[in-house]
From TrEMBL:
Species whose genome carries this gene: Streptomyces griseoloalbus
Domain Acyl-CoA dehydrogenase/oxidase C-terminal as annotated: residue spans: 236-384
Pfam families for this protein: Acyl-CoA_dh_1 (PF00441), Acyl-CoA_dh_M (PF02770), Acyl-CoA_dh_N (PF02771)
InterPro entries with a match to the protein in the record: Acyl-CoA_DH_CS, Acyl-CoA_Oxase/DH_mid-dom, Acyl-CoA_Oxase/DH_mid-dom_sf, AcylCo_DH-like_C, AcylCo_DH/oxidase_C, AcylCoA_DH/ox_N, AcylCoA_DH/ox_N_sf, AcylCoA_DH/oxidase_NM_dom_sf
Protein family according to the UniProt entry: Belongs to the acyl-CoA dehydrogenase family.
Domain Acyl-CoA dehydrogenase/oxidase N-terminal: 15-125
Keywords linked to the UniProt accession: FAD, Flavoprotein, Oxidoreductase
Cofactor: FAD
Name of the protein described by the UniProt record: Acyl-CoA dehydrogenase family protein
Residues covered by the Acyl-CoA oxidase/dehydrogenase middle domain: 130-224
Superkingdom of the organism of origin: Bacteria
Length: 390
């Protein structure tokens, strides 16, 4: 059966500019991303030229200030762009989300001089970023990180290893959290490390069950020297910066999850209406009709949830609880919907001739990144019932 382009989602967008932006993204997705997605994922090829095109099109800095090359778009719009990109290829949608996450520390906490010097290239100059918080021994317990930064005059010397870094080894800049003081969250500081810094290297990329086109690797910092002018925020403020970044990053993952789930639903629906058994399309069988109805309902609920959280963020209101809820619900939805899509396609769904099996493999990682879904439940419960008693 032929490949099918995702069906356009009927979006409620705030401005005519936003509608034009979505049209641009859909055009790029259909022309430049979707046609090569399966082949390149199978080959483990990262589409750097696509990210260059996205940068040239103004799509790598959408939620940031236009003074520095950003798009001045609200999160409500930016997240729907991510969803459209993820519908075409998750590697691209998630890559844009990670780049936005990596740019956040400087955009939100950097000094004006730092922003003027670095943000234009980061947001619209073709650069690609990576976010370095996790380590081999500190994932969910990020506050226990061991990477150290020691002051040496007007410079810092950073030593340690970061793990599970999206774009590790190919990024042009890394936002790195390192320990500069006491144990725990108050001793962590953020730094902007150039990708070509001496002493910075990447391990061989991880071999993953999905997202093979998106490199994930450990980053080794062996006495990397950066000037104090590349310290972001105050000393000891890094963990607060990291958590603030992750609130927005979780919404990015939620949007990507819904994009992936929508692609899986479109594939399953197209197959079910074309495939005939017992003299009629299998979409006529009530068992499959109910599956499709549940898939569509879960997707629509997830989209509404991440957009509600985005609108809180855009209004300057607290949104951390809602971001955790959106990440939890949307990624669980992606796992459920992609699994059901494989089931609807039957034996064909288990083959690489159809994208359903790739969608299912890719969905799993979304329940893990930006804080596992067990961590999201802890975050939500703390907002509801307060911190756990010690």
């Amino acid at each position: 059966m032929p490949d099918r382009a995702p069906q356009p989602v009927d979006r409620q967008l705030p401005t005519a500019e936003a509608r034009d932006l979505i049209s641009l993204v859909r055009d790029i997705a259909q022309r430049e991303i979707a046609p090569r997605a399966a082949e390149e994922e199978d080959a483990g090829r990262f589409p750097r030229e696509v990210f260059t095109l996205l940068s040239e099109s103004g799509l790598l800095g959408l939620p940031y200030d236009s003074e520095y090359g950003g798009g001045d778009q609200p999160y409500e719009v930016y997240l729907q762009v991510l969803e459209e990109l993820a519908m075409a290829r998750l590697t691209v949608g998630l890559g844009v989300s990670v780049h936005t996450l990596a740019s956040y520390a400087l955009a939100a906490y950097g000094a004006k001089e730092q922003q003027a010097e670095h943000l234009p290239a980061m947001l619209g100059g073709g650069l690609l970023g990576a976010y370095c918080l996790s380590e081999p021994s500190s994932g969910s317990d990020a506050a226990s990180l061991r990477t150290k930064a020691v002051r040496d005059g007007d410079h810092w010397v950073i030593t340690g290893t970061k793990a599970w870094i999206t774009h590790g080894g190919i990024a042009d800049f890394y936002t790195v959290m390192a320990r500069t003081g006491e144990e725990g969250p108050r001793g962590i500081t953020a730094f902007l490390v150039p990708g070509d810094a001496g002493g910075l290297g990447a391990a061989v990329p991880e071999k993953k069950m999905g997202m093979k086109g998106s490199p994930t690797a450990q980053i080794h910092l062996d006495g990397v020297r950066v000037s104090d002018a590349r310290r972001i925020g105050e000393e000891g403020q890094g963990f607060a910066i990291a958590l603030s970044a992750l609130d927005g990053g979780r919404l990015g993952i939620a949007a990507c999850a819904i994009g992936l789930a929508q692609a899986a639903l479109d594939e399953a629906l197209g197959y079910a209406t074309e495939r005939r058994q017992f003299g009629k399309p299998i979409a006529d069988f009530q068992g499959l009709r109910f599956m499709l109805a549940d898939m569509a309902t879960q997707i629509e609920a997830g989209r509404a949830l991440y957009l509600a959280a985005a609108r809180l963020r855009d209004a300057g209101r607290p949104f951390a609880q809602q971001a955790a809820m959106a990440k939890l619900h949307c990624t669980d939805t992606a796992m459920r919907v992609t699994t059901d899509a494989v089931q609807i396609l039957g034996g064909y769904g288990y083959t690489a001739d159809f994208p359903a099996e790739r969608y299912m493999r890719e969905a799993k990682v979304l329940q893990i990144v930006e804080g596992t879904n067990q961590i999201q439940r802890m975050v939500i419960a703390r907002h509801l019932a307060g911190p756990e008693t010690r």
